[in-house]
Structure formats: structure tokens, C-alpha cells
Write a structure and sequence with these properties.
The complex is a heterotrimer of chains A (165), B (201) and C (186).
Chain A: H1 3-15, H2 24-34, H3 53-63, E1 78-85, E2 92-96, E3 109-111, E4 114-121, E5 124-132, E6 136-138, E7 156-160
Antiparallel strand pairs in A: 1-4, 2-5, 3-4, 5-6, 5-7
Chain B: H1 2-9, H2 24-39, H3 45-56, H4 61-82, H5 88-99, H6 104-113, H7 119-130, H8 135-145, H9 151-166, H10 171-184
Chain C: H1 9-18, H2 22-44, H3 47-63, H4 74-93, H5 114-131, H6 135-146, H7 151-158, H8 162-184
Helix pairs in contact in C: 1-2, 2-3, 2-4, 3-4, 4-7, 5-8, 6-8
């Protein structure tokens, strides 16, 4: 066997290893099937594909008091507003590169099912996510997705520019 | 291993108290990586934050170590392409762009095409790819806009492309259409007379 | 190897499902979940999307069970549904190039030294190299070499001709060799 073939064999060996599919998947499949009333039911909606811009904007306009947002603050920081629509949540924390991923640093405020927090951000690129009820990780559906997901949970990214706007 | 060799070269590793959240074995390795990165002039904050992210998310020690090592390596790679005077935000955005498929040659070209900071151009490149735009389309678009677009224009460009994709446009087409539109309307300032609102991602 | 004609239990289970026994479908899901899941994870390169594709495929298969003409070859038919479903997700997620590392690598609490890290880095490298193959080549390589399908089965499942598939597998092997040889010399 040539070196190249041996290399490919090593690749195959690696790929054949078990990947550990979530055992709860079985239950999810059966639940979905059991909920089927009609034989040719429509495909279920995929929430991640829906951009909630309009809904959030409408609620925010009605709910969030128009605070006088200043221009850029001292030390070149920009106030950034993070929003998550989660009517069922009991608590939501904003965690990311700007607060050492500490869930206690930026608990979010809720009104009518819409959670919000404003954070002062110096220039930089920040990965972040929402921690819902202390256990569930959610990315921000309205923000760019973090390109790597090394810890198995979704994250989002925000980039703040220093100058030149 | 390389880490052992570098440990010999470093005096006393600086202990960042935030890393106390890591278990001792993981902390030792991460501290070593952070110190060796710092000793060659790479920013340490992104490495610390990556370790903290892993801890908060309950990841196992070796997963955290792997992520931090990868990031340190990538920071070195992009700094070689962008130059030693690159700022930490530029380097972090460049790593995202690299992982999205940008080559080191492209990074160097962007550096040559645009006045610093390069952060937003690199970020938009990475974010476009994350939205489904093919890497070479995103690269071509950003390179085309780089010389003249302001940072705010680049952000607006990225948002416009994402809106089009959400409405069903094929990503590569959405990108090239917007590039051509963008080339003509770079100075469009948007609706006047509104109080500035806090920025959104 | 291949999928082949499994013992009559697949056909038996399908028969029971058609007669209204949903739990029999649970047995089919358990039977195929890990194998199909492995394909989905390597093909898509993202665990979350892969599990979604897998779940979708199982549900789709149930809903169109009437169209499964040979219940004894349920597995092969299910593969066809999954391969197609992965193509849709692949187009959406292809550019994310996420790093995926197998879950079983991280079941230990503390690292075991440089060997363990090297193993993890190898796993990481393999996934990244795989992600850089074109989708058709990745698909063919995985079906042939990881899922052990025969070329005739692959033709049924992918809709491509046998000689085209053989060429794709060959090209995939060449590309992987090239990518991984370059990586090792960095």
C-alpha cells in the first residue's frame, strides 16, 4: 500500500468512529409522528430560518422607552442593544467576549416577552450568546453566526468599529 | 512538544485570575499557551476569552485546550499576513475571515487596499460567508468595496445581502448585485432627522 | 457488505408500522440512527444541522412509507431520503466550515498528555479536509468507504451512474491525500 493509500486508510478509520447522536432524537421523531393527524402533513416550520425583524421592531417601539442614546461615549465605546424574543423564558443572560462569559454580568430585562440589554462596547469583534433559564444556549437570530462552534453550542458575533464611520 | 520548549523560555507565567475558573490541569496548559503567545507579541485577551467561553459552556478540558491552541496558531498566521502593527481587533476579525476561507494572500491584499483599521472589512467577509455566501464571492465583493467604502457602508452591505438571502436570493448572486449597487451609492447617508439609536448587530 | 437484504425483521417492522403500530417505527429508528447519523454529521460538518437532517429524514420516511416498495430494503430507501436531505442542508451550511470533533473524544475529564491532543488535532484535520471536498465527492467517499455501500446501492441512493461514482471516489481519495499531506508539512 502506498503512503497515500495508508493516509486515506487512516482517514477512513477516523471517520468510522461513532459520533454520538443525541439519544433523545428517537423520542423527538416519535413525538412528531404521533402528532401527525393527516398522512401527508406539511413539513414543520423551521424557526431558525425566520428573521423576526418586524415583530421585534414593533414590540420594541411600543415597549422600550426612548432613552436619549448619545453619540459614541468616552473612551470610544458604543452602546449596543441585544434583543431576544423569548416569552416562555424565566431568565435570560447575555454572555460573551465582552463580559468574560459570566452569566451574572448582564442579566437581561423583559417586557412583553422581549428580553433586552444594552452594553457599552469598545472596538473589537465579540462572540456572544444568550443563556436562557440558566441552561439553554441560543444564538441571536438577528446577528451574524459565529463561524466556529467549538464547544457545541451556537454563538453569534458583533463587530464594533473604532473609527472611520 | 512545542509547549514544553516554550515554557523553558518563559520566566514566570502571569496568572490571570479569571482563569481560576478552569480546572487545574486545563488552566496550566492554557496559561502556558497564553504566555507563549504573549511572548511573541500576539494578543492574549482573545485566548483568555475563548477559554472562559468553554468553561461557561461546560466543555471538557481538552476541548478548551484544543480551541485555545487553534486560536493561538491562527492569530500567528494572520499576523504574518497583516503585519506586526495589526491591532488585536484586526487580528481577531482576520482569524474569523481565515476560518471562513480567506487565504493569507487575500488578507495581505486587503491590507494593501484599505487604510487601517481593517477590522470591519474582515468581519464583513467572515459574516457573509457565515450567511451562506461562497467564500470567493465574499472575498471578491469585499476586495472590490475595500478601497472606498466606509465601515458603515460595509455593514450596510452585509445586512442588505443577508436580507436578500433571507428572501430567497441565491447568495452569490445577492452579493454581486449588491456590490454593483454599492459602488454607486457609497455616500447614501440614510434618513435624516432621526435621533441616533443604539446600534444593533 | 452494503445495506443488503436485512433479515425479515425490517420488513416485519414496516408491516407493523403500516398496520398502525408506531412503536415499531421506534425500533427502526433505533436500528438506523447511529449509522445514518454518522453519515449526516460527516457530510454536513455540523452536529446540530446533522441531527436536524436526521430527524427530518426519519419523519419524512414515516410519512411516505407507502412509497417504500421493498420493505425488506427499508434501510437503503431511508439512506436515499437522508442523502437528499443532506444535500439541502449542505447548500445552506456549506460555507460555515465548522470544526466538528467526535463526541466520544471528550468523555474524559482531564487530558492525557500530548498523545491525546495529537489525536484530537488529527480528528480536527480530517474533518476540515473532508469539508474542503466538493459535496459530490464527499458524498461518494463517505457512502463508499465509511458507510460501506456497494456501487449499485450508491447509484440507487444518489441517482448518479456507477462509473461517475467510481470517478468521484477516486478524486476524493486523491484530494484528501493532497490536503492532508500539505497539512502535515506545515
Amino acid at each position: 500500500m502506498s503512503d497515500g493509500d495508508e493516509l486515506v486508510e487512516r482517514v477512513i478509520e477516523q471517520l468510522r468512529r461513532p459520533v454520538g447522536i443525541d439519544p433523545a432524537l428517537d423520542a423527538r421523531v416519535l413525538r412528531e409522528i404521533a402528532a401527525d393527524a393527516r398522512p401527508e402533513a406539511a413539513l414543520r416550520a423551521k424557526p431558525r430560518m425566520i428573521w423576526p425583524w418586524l415583530a421585534v421592531a414593533a414590540v420594541l417601539a411600543a415597549v422600550i422607552v426612548a432613552r436619549p442614546w448619545a453619540r459614541r461615549d468616552v473612551a470610544g465605546e458604543t452602546p449596543f442593544q441585544f434583543v431576544l424574543v423569548a416569552p416562555q423564558a424565566a431568565s435570560v443572560s447575555l454572555v460573551g467576549d465582552f463580559n468574560d462569559w459570566d452569566p451574572n454580568r448582564a442579566p437581561m430585562q423583559v417586557a412583553h416577552g422581549v428580553w433586552a440589554a444594552v452594553v457599552q462596547l469598545p472596538p473589537g469583534r465579540y462572540r456572544y450568546a444568550f443563556l436562557v433559564n440558566g441552561v439553554e444556549w441560543r444564538s441571536d437570530p438577528t446577528a451574524p453566526h459565529a463561524s466556529d462552534d467549538e464547544f457545541g453550542t451556537p454563538s453569534s458575533v458583533v463587530t464594533v468599529t473604532g473609527g472611520g464611520t | 512538544m512545542i509547549i514544553a520548549a516554550l515554557l523553558i523560555a518563559i520566566q514566570t507565567p502571569v496568572q490571570d485570575p479569571r482563569l481560576d475558573r478552569l480546572d487545574p490541569n486545563t488552566r496550566a496548559t492554557v496559561v502556558a499557551i497564553v504566555d507563549s503567545a504573549r511572548s511573541i507579541g500576539l494578543p492574549s485577551e482573545p485566548l483568555v476569552q475563548r477559554a472562559l467561553e468553554g468553561t461557561t459552556k461546560g466543555a471538557a478540558g481538552e476541548r478548551i485546550v484544543l480551541a485555545v491552541r487553534r486560536l493561538a496558531g491562527d492569530l500567528g498566521t494572520v499576523r504574518a499576513a497583516l503585519g506586526n502593527s495589526s491591532t488585536p481587533p484586526e487580528l481577531e476579525a482576520a482569524v474569523a475571515a481565515l476560518r471562513a476561507g480567506a487565504s493569507t494572500q487575500l488578507l495581505a491584499k486587503l491590507r494593501a487596499a484599505r487604510r487601517p483599521p481593517l477590522t470591519m472589512a474582515l468581519a464583513v467577509l467572515a459574516d457573509l460567508v457565515a450567511s451562506g455566501v461562497p467564500a470567493d464571492s465574499a472575498a471578491a465583493a469585499v476586495l472590490a468595496l475595500a478601497p472606498r467604502a466606509r465601515d458603515a457602508d460595509l455593514v450596510e452591505f452585509r445586512r442588505a445581502v443577508e436580507r436578500d438571502i433571507a428572501l430567497g436570493a441565491p447568495p452569490a448572486a445577492a452579493t454581486s448585485i449588491r456590490v454593483n449597487a454599492g459602488a454607486n451609492t457609497l455616500t447614501d447617508a440614510g434618513p435624516a432627522g432621526q435621533p441616533p439609536r443604539p446600534t444593533r448587530p | 457488505m452494503g445495506i443488503g437484504k436485512v433479515e425479515s425483521s425490517d420488513a416485519e417492522l414496516v408491516g407493523r408500522v403500516r398496520a398502525g403500530d408506531i412503536s415499531a417505527y421506534g425500533a427502526l429508528v433505533a436500528r438506523y440512527r447511529d449509522r445514518l447519523g454518522r453519515y449526516a454529521v460527516h457530510m454536513i460538518g455540523d452536529r446540530e444541522d446533522a441531527e436536524e437532517a436526521l430527524q427530518d429524514s426519519f419523519v419524512r420516511a414515516y410519512r411516505s412509507l407507502g412509497r417504500c416498495t421493498d420493505p425488506a430494503r427499508f434501510g437503503a430507501w431511508l439512506y436515499g431520503i437522508l442523502v437528499n436531505r443532506c444535500r439541502t442542508t449542505g447548500a445552506r451550511a456549506a460555507r460555515r466550515r465548522r470544526v466538528f470533533v467526535a463526541a466520544d473524544e471528550f468523555d474524559r475529564a482531564t487530558p492525557n498528555g500530548p498523545d491525546e491532543l495529537e489525536r484530537l488535532e488529527w480528528a480536527d484535520l480530517v474533518e476540515r479536509a473532508l469539508a474542503r471536498l466538493g459535496p459530490e465527492h464527499r458524498e461518494a467517499f463517505l457512502l463508499k468507504h465509511v458507510e460501506d455501500l456497494e456501487y449499485e446501492e450508491m447509484a440507487e441512493v444518489t441517482g448518479a451512474g456507477v462509473s461517475a461514482l467510481k470517478m468521484r471516489v477516486k478524486r476524493a481519495r486523491e484530494q484528501l491525500q493532497k490536503l492532508l499531506t500539505e497539512a502535515r508539512h506545515v
